[in-house]
Amino acid sequence: EFDYSNNLIWSFQQLQSGNLLIGTHGGLIEFDVATRNFSFFSEQEFGKIPVRALTILPDGNIWVGTYMNGLVLMNQQGHVLKRFSEDSPDKIAGNIIWEIVPDNKNNIWVAAYGGLTRINLSTFETRMWKYPGYESKGYISSSSVHHVMVDKSGIVWISTINGLNRLDPAKDKIYVFHHDQGNPVSISNDRILSTF
Q1: End-to-end CA distance of the chain, in Å?
Q2: Statement: residue 136 has pLDDT above 50
Q3: Residues 20 and 34: beta-carbon distance below 8 Å
Q4: pLDDT in tens, 38-97
Q5: Model pTM score
Q6: CA 14, CA 30: separation in Å to the nearest integer?
Q7: 77 contact partners, CB below 8 Å, separation of at least 6
Q8: CA 103 to centroid of chain Cα atoms
Q9: What Rg do the C-alpha atoms of the chain give, in angstroms?
Q10: Gap between the Cα atoms of 54 and 46, Å rounded
Q11: Can you tell me the distance from the alpha carbon of 63 to that of 35, in angstroms, rounded to the nearest whole number?
Q12: 77 CB burial (10 A radius; 0-12, 13-18, 19+)
């Protein structure tokens, strides 16, 4: 019988098999919908490493965002195809991953404690935006990026603990929205945890 005592669930996605892949504080779990059994998914790779974010793309590949161990690309069988971290040759802005979001231009956007990273899905080329100003003409308003959303026009909205950031990737321009007590139509608080 599967012994799993940690019930903190951060994310889940459905595999091509129909089973559920669940990111938890105690590892990456697979729920078999037919047998209603739980098991560790790719236990040799993840063990009990906390998994904060999951995204499965149309090609079937799984992007796994961990807490402290960076980002992992794997296939549906659980084999690791590529790793990204602050210290790897394929650098990302941080190793604590909060969210992974695809866009319609063949990229994924990775929100992390440390900043924002765009990864091109064809070349795996990365581009980072950090605080303050790291690689960008602009800068994001905080190193703690909790959420990212790409709207229909390709604008990237970045939720941080110090304001809402609007990134136009085509122009590499960032505008930051802050709370302004003197402006009643400004955002109500600088601590933005998500956008829809």
Answers
A1: 40
A2: no
A3: no
A4: 988 987 777 788 999 999 999 999 999 999 999 999 999 999 999 999 998 889 999 999
A5: 0.90
A6: 9
A7: none
A8: 13
A9: 18
A10: 13
A11: 25
A12: exposed
pLDDT band at 4 (very low <50, low <70, confident <90, very high): low
Cβ atoms of 84 and 70 closer than 8 Å: yes
143-179 confidence digits (pLDDT tens): 899 999 999 999 999 999 999 999 999 998 999 898 9
Task: Output the six-digit token pair for 7.
Answer: 């019930």
Tokens encoding 24: 């938890």
Phi, psi at residue 38, to the nearest 5°?
Answer: -105, 150
In the block, residue with structure tokens 């903190």:
8
Using CA atoms, how far apart are residues 27 and 25, in angstroms rounded to an integer? 6
Q: Report cis status (omega within 30 of 0) of the bond before 132.
A: yes
